[in-house]
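Lab notes, practical 5.
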Amino acid sequence: MPAARSALRTLTAVALILAAGAAWAQTHTNSDMFTTRAAAEKRAQQLKCSGAFAMGDQWMPCQDLSSYEKAISTKK
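Output from the prediction step:
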C-alpha cells in the first residue's frame, strides 16, 4: 500500500508541474520557442544569457525559465 501512495504522490506532482508549464506557455506566447536546441542557444546569445532548456517538445533560450524571464524583462 505505501508504494501505491508514493506512486500517486509522484503522479500528482508530475501533473501539477505539467499544468504549470502549460499555463505559463499559454500566457507567454512568443517567438522564443524553437524546434532545435541550437536555435534556442543562438537566441540566448541575443538575450545575453547562455544555454537552452526544454519546454515540452520545444526549446527555449537561457539555462532555465527564471534566467529567460530575467533576460526578457531587462531587454524591454
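Observations recorded by the TA: The beta strands are 52-55, 58-61. Residues 31-76 form one domain.
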